[in-house]
Write a structure and sequence with these properties.
A 7-stranded parallel β-sheet has the order 17-18-16-19-22-15-23, sandwiched between helices. Strands 24-34-33-25-32-31 form a 6-stranded parallel β-sheet, sandwiched between helices. Strands 11-10-13-12-14 form a 5-stranded antiparallel β-sheet. The protein is of the alpha/beta class. Strand 33, helix 17 and strand 34 form a beta-alpha-beta unit. It is globular, with a radius of gyration of 29 Å. The chain is built from 21 helices and 38 strands. It starts with a strand and ends in a 6-residue tail after the last strand.
Amino acid sequence: MRAHFGGGGNVDGIADGGDKHLRFESIILFVDGADFGNECHAVLADIVQPTNERRNECCPRLGSKNRLRSGKAQRDVDHRTMAGEMFAGLEAIPRHGHFDGDVLGKLGKFFAFADHALGVGGHHFGRNGPWNYGADFFQHFDEVAAGFGHQRRIGGDAVKHAGGGKVADFFNIGGIDKKFHDVHPVRDNDVDDNAREDALATANDALTTQVEVLLPAAVSHGFDYLVPAGMTLAAGDIVSVPFGRGQSLGVVWGKGVAKLDPKKLKAVAALHDFPPLSDAMRQFIDWAAWYYCASKGAMLKMTLPVDEIDKAGRKDVAAHVETHVDVGKITLASLSPAQETAADTLRDCVGKGFSVTLLDGVTGSGKTEVYFKAIAEALKTNAQNQVLVLLPEIGLGVQWLERFEKRFGFTPLMWNSEITPARKRMTWQAIARGEARVVVGARSALFLPYKHLSLLVVDEEHDQSYKQEDGVVYHARDMAVSRARFEKLPITLVSATPSLESYFNTRQGKYREVSLPARHGAAEMPSIEMLDMRKVAVEKDAFISQPLREKLAQTVADGHQAMLFLNRRGFAPLLLCRACGHRFQCPKCSSWLVLHRGRPRLECHHCGYHVPVPESCPECKAEGKLYACGPGIERVHEEVTAFLPKARIRVMASDHTTTMSELTETITDMSEKRIDVLIGTQMIAKGHHFAGLAMVGVVDADLGLAGGDLRAAERTYQLLHQLSGRAGREDVAGTVYLQSFLPEHPVMQALLSGDRDAFLSAELDARKEADMPPFSRLAAVIIEAPKEEQAMRMARALAAAAPEHPKIHLLGPAPAPLFMLRGKFRYRLLLKADRAVNLPDYMRVWLDSVSTPSSVRVKPDMDPISFL
């Protein structure tokens, strides 16, 4: 017996005598079985209405004993039918779900919830509240043939659904690992390719009278509109439609099926002269919305950014955006035999369907030049092919663009937050029309409507910047793999320190691996030395040890360049009063105000709140007692300037390089050796190539290990390894100095030994023992509200409503470690599930079962990487 959670829809008739579609809260379609807990019989559909609804019903009645098919009336399908019989025999969630050692094993101590977790008590969650399926339903990933929603609604006397008997098994679907990490093509065994094309053609042929239009807004379904006389529409067309008191852009998602009087429907206002969104793109949006429990309209908004689109035509675009590519001018670098072998592997993937390849090479091994070969192959193979390269940060694009222009003879189009709205509008049009051959951008570039996308590259695939935490929460690396599958094209993931998930997938045979174990040419990997801060000499109120000072001074004296790294902005992370102990805290966030000296003020790095630095303590009024605790990069800059007064020193951090031009200037000056010492945060750690850089010093190598995090060790290793890789990339030998109070920590020992694979294998073993990702799956729920009581009440209601499942463990609710953020109080819950569980469906059904007040926000986070 399997339950199908299909697409949401409308019920025939008119609600409240008006012209609104009557939305129902749930349809459960049972197939392939005789009995379902002796309560419901095969091939019947009951419609369930929450008991608190007060809407007028049309036939069939909501909440009544009527069915859409023949058979005697039964009692209402209530929460006991669903939560009782559907989950009969399943044990309750463990009573005490703590984020500590008894649940998480050896990794328990690394979790940020260690001091906050609350047991869920002695309740059998899922049995005390109503079971109400939400108004938006979900698609099985395999059901892509019928267009994800062309026949999803209830109309007349039959339940119609694309795919028929293909249903989602609530317990046995393999989740995202199965769905888009598996390298084999996704196929619906019951529908061949010709049938898929016929179904799509039939649907498109029928778009002559009434269409469903999806709007780029927080909506989970489309709206029906009439097709005006003389207008021909097809699925994917970009249109303008009346909505509310104005008009909105939208995309034709399929055939409209609401059986309303045509007089009550409004007509499409205009068809825009843009290429339609492809079937693959619309299927990708549907799937991404399903997996991340987001609305389809919110996903569409990233594809159709309304503010950046106008009605300008092709000539307007061509006049402002250079899109011409002369493949005859491509002059790629000469490669070593090892690089050439790797490049051949990547080139062979172009034009041969979906594949995932991990290009795993040490820092300085020439990974960029290797995947340039694959880009050139895509451009030369077909004059229409488009290529997308994702970079995690804008700063990485400066040197990347210079190298690309040198090799290819043209400038790729950029897509990031720094380009102007006018430029972004023209870039979007060039991409949509297929005129932009190569695009390089941040994570949002993944959702743009490429007309002929043929190759995807994700550089620095391990970087956590690919995870978007605000708005629609998603991981761009994972979604890039998913989009490559829908588009049936190759994707290359690139890193010197692969994420544990990607590393695991290569070991499982799901990804192909191409390795570059040595640096290019005569360059050698830098040597690494540990400075035990428990033993070395450090001056009073200083943070750079005497040995590191001497090495830094010698490097500058020899005419070489040096980097100093501290991943902490500002002058000091805390200002306190030595007289009374008062600490300056943000009134809107659970965090201290950071002292900045460059622009004198106390600032919150979470919400931006700031105040001038006071002359006396606001608590006890004592003067001269305020003390700056700990170092930030401004303090390091002050210290280095004191003992190297003649050195050319520059700071590179988001506070100091606030524009693209400032960032470009700093990188250019460093490349051309106009800087002796570059001091910075993680902005200096990735991707940069400075030929004269001989030394890297890490002021606080232990910083990333604090705070308790599942991935703390992995991320710290990646960051410090990437930073070390900036040194000694050409003729000058490189040395890295790590100041640490924990030199015996496995991360420090792995950096010293240079045995990365041994470290990753040990991390995998620890994760396996604790049954944590990639051996299980996590999903978080963050509750935010303006009042603490509201957040706590909602968190407890969600915990009490969680359906019981033998392979899902609920942890919490617990106050978030960052309990207050931007004036909102925050609670968290965490689900840990077996990889075989269909977690997105479980999450949506669970979250839709509880009514959320308008003042409260419930944010699901699939595969969380932050636990704050």
